[in-house]
Design brief:
This protein is an alpha/beta fold. Helix content is 34%, strand content 26%. The strands form two sheets. The chain has a six-stranded mixed beta sheet with strand order 6-7-8-3-9-10, sandwiched between helices. The longest helix is centred in the C-terminal third of the chain and has 16 residues.
């Protein structure tokens, strides 16, 4: 078995903690007695082979999957069994694999949904500053964007909603190298803002360059 621990720095408090969590779908168990912690302002990489349970861990950590046993705490509150809305209102932003955008809506309409009640002029300006290409694509349907542009649109939610914790599943999946670099530039800006970040990533070195702590999952267990 292998573990990776990089001089984990002290944090004021634990932003997210899974205590001995077992979870799955139907009769299938995916996570087995998982302990997982993300500190305030910490960057955590979650690595492992396909089918290891990484996506299920993120979904369990944000209320999309209810644990069969164990406890999920976020921001100091026990949210075990709560729905995703409870995590969102406390500052969690989960960016799922597959972009997580509305492909039939325009870029501007997607930004409006992401921004909720914020002023749209301010929202558009902020998104365009982060990803200039989005500013020139406001009337274009999101589904017609390139893969990299779709991921930029998805990632803009992590800025517009002012979260405390961002969990991003396969940030670079299917993207060209230049687009991957741009996405990671944006993730570094999140880190500089002091947000907590969890990254599931196929490009291991990209994740290692950003993360201070690494968890490795295999067959649903932290090894």
């Amino acid at each position: 078995m292998m573990s990776v621990n990089r001089s984990r720095r002290a944090h004021d408090f634990e932003m997210l903690t899974l205590h001995s969590v077992t979870a799955g779908y139907g009769e299938t168990t995916v996570l087995r007695d998982v302990n997982f912690t993300v500190g305030d302002g910490e960057v955590v990489a979650l690595l492992g082979p396909n089918g290891a349970g990484k996506t299920t861990l993120l979904r369990t950590a944000t209320g999309f999957v209810k644990p069969r046993s164990g406890r999920v705490e976020f921001g100091g509150a026990d949210l075990t069994g709560h729905r995703p809305h409870a995590f969102v209102t406390r500052g969690a932003c989960h960016l799922p694999e597959g972009r997580g955008i509305f492909p039939s809506l325009t870029v501007r309409e997607n930004l409006r949904i992401q921004a909720r009640s914020r002023d749209m002029n301010e929202v558009v300006a902020e998104a365009a500053e982060l990803f200039p290409v989005l500013g020139s694509r406001l009337r274009q349907t999101a589904g017609s964007l390139s893969g990299g542009e779709q991921q930029m649109l998805a990632l803009s939610r992590a800025y517009l909603t002012r979260p405390k914790l961002v969990l991003i599943d396969e940030a670079s999946l299917g993207l060209a190298p230049l687009a991957v670099d741009r996405i990671y530039d944006a993730l570094r800006q999140l880190v500089e803002r002091g947000l907590s970040l969890v990254i599931v990533e196929q490009y291991v070195q990209k994740a290692l360059d950003l993360a201070s702590t690494v968890y490795i999952l295999n067959r649903g267990e932290v090894i």
